[in-house]
Structures are given as C-alpha cells and as structure tokens.
Amino acid sequence: MAPGGSGGGGGRCSKNEADSGFLGLRPTSVDPALRRRRRGPRNKKRGWRRLAQEPLGLEVDQFLEDVRLQERTSGGLVSEAPDEKLFFVDTGAKQKELNKKRTKSQKRSLLLKKLLRVDLVLENTSKVPVPKDVLAHQVPNARKLKRKEQLWEKLAKQGELPREVRKAQARLRNPPAVKAKPGPQDTVERPFYDLWAKDNLLDRPLAGQDAFFLEQTKKKGVKRPPHLHAKPSQVPAVEVTPAGASYNPSFEDHQTLLLAAHEVELQRQKQAERLERQLALPSPEQAATQVTQPEKVEKVERVEKVIRGKGRSQDRGPEGALSYFPQTRV
C-alpha cells in the first residue's frame, strides 16, 4: 500500500491514497486512482460507439443482420415458421420423374420456358414484399374525375346524357350525306367559263363584300355562337364609386360628388312637395268655391244657349238680359 501522508499522525490518509490499489512493477507505472476518467464527445455518434460496450453492440448488429437474412430467404423468422414449411415427406416421386427420358419436343419446351441468365440476374430473389409505390397507382385528378362520374350517373337517372353521347346519337339519327367523288366523266362535262370575265363564277360569292375583306383574306369571320350573347348572371354589374368617394379625394372631385348628391336631394324634395300638394285637404273657403263653381258655369252655358236660339229682343234691355243670370252666392 502507499505510505501515509506526512504531517500530524500516520493514521490519516488522503482520498487518492485510500482509493489506490497496488502499484505496478515498472518505474513508469502510475497509481490508477490518480488517472482521470476519459470522457469523449457525447454529441456525436463516434463518441456513442466508443463509450458503448462493443460486444453488446456487435451482438445486436449480428442479430439484426441474421433477422434480415431470414426474411429475405424464407420470408420470415425460422423460429416462427410452422412445421409444414420447414419439413416435408420425401416420397421420391420427383426422382422417378427425373429418371424418365424426355423427348426432343419436351426438352425444347423446357428450354423455351427457362429464363435467360440476364433475366435471372434481374429477378427479385428476396421474400420480403416490395413496398407499394403509391404514386404509381394514383391517377391525376382522380377526385375530380370521380365527382364527374357521380354527376353524370345522377344526370343519367334523370334522362340527361353527356354532350358527346348526344352528338353521337344525333349523328346516328341524321347521318351526314356522303359526298360523291367526281369521276372522270363529271370532269369532262364541267362547263367552261372565262377566267377574266366580269361575271366570273368564282367571283359571284364575293359580290357586295367589304373592300378590305376582298383585299386581305376573302374569308368570312367565325359566327359568334348565340349562347355567348346571353348574360351569364342576372345580377347587375358592380358600380364603380366616383373619385370623390375615395379616402383622400381631390377638392374638385369632392365638390362634384357633393353637387350630385345635392341635386338628388333637391329632386327628392320636389317630389315630396308635389305629393303633399296632391294629397292635401282643401280649406273651407276653397271647398265652397269648388262646389259652387261648376253650378255657376252650367247656368251660364244654359243662358248662352237661350240667347243664341231666340236672339236679342228689342223690348229687352241690358237689364232684361242680365236678369237671366241668376245671383249666386260665393
């Protein structure tokens, strides 16, 4: 053992001396208790492997490799395989079949069935199933196509068919007329015409057309289909607000907007006043005048008729003429 420390009392010793063992025989040997424990970096896998027990890690790696080999060769662990898969009864039937002599045609058929070596090398010999490639089995726009099929099934129950089917049915009901190819006799009987004459047969369809049309293309434009003229929605278009209604308008735009609003309010006020005048009850004086006025007019018309019919008599003076007018109270 190492000698005790100097100082007061030989019974006391330091911690290193108490934990130390026997010294080595070599002069360079050091007390094991004085050595520090060497710690490697723990943030890297290299430190994990060095600090881990190598026999345990090696054993785990060998076990996992053995499991992978069994899965590739037999499709699973041999310890978990049933007896029927591991053992079989040898009846010798295959040996008898091999002893039979094959004909040339049988040998040729066997050779044709046998794969080439290049194909055997590329063949998968592992019993582990290949993981499915999900993307390879997916159809682009599968959800959209499925919804479309469901929609057409629903419409087919209601009696509505797709456009392609309707066009095909219409083509079957009204087949297009087959154009007869002109034969040599028709070509000979074709009438002749003067190419430079004014009444040329080829220029008749172009009569009355636009000058630019005749100069450039000589082809009629595509007719706009009728469904493009119909409005897609009955909702009116979005009205664009005037410039004066913005967050920070100019002075002129703001005054223009105020003037337009003022005119609208004036028009509304005039309509309200007109409606009030039409619906207002007349005063008592106006009501009496409205009642007596028609009676007065009727009496005046009656007197005028009498004057026209009989004429003015000489014995009647202006007083007599005025006597026909009844006195009315107003």
Automatic annotation (TrEMBL):
Protein's UniProt keywords contain Nucleus: yes
Protein name: Ribosome biogenesis protein NOP53
Biased composition (Basic residues): 35-49
Region of interest called Disordered, as start-end residue ranges on this chain: 1-50, 302-330
This protein's encoding gene: NOP53
Entries under Pfam families matching the protein: Nop53
Molecular functions per Gene Ontology: 5S rRNA binding
Ranges of Gly residues composition bias in the record: 1-12
One GO location term (cellular component): nucleolus
Compositionally biased intervals (Basic and acidic residues): 302-318
Record's subcellular location: Nucleus, Nucleolus; Nucleus, Nucleoplasm
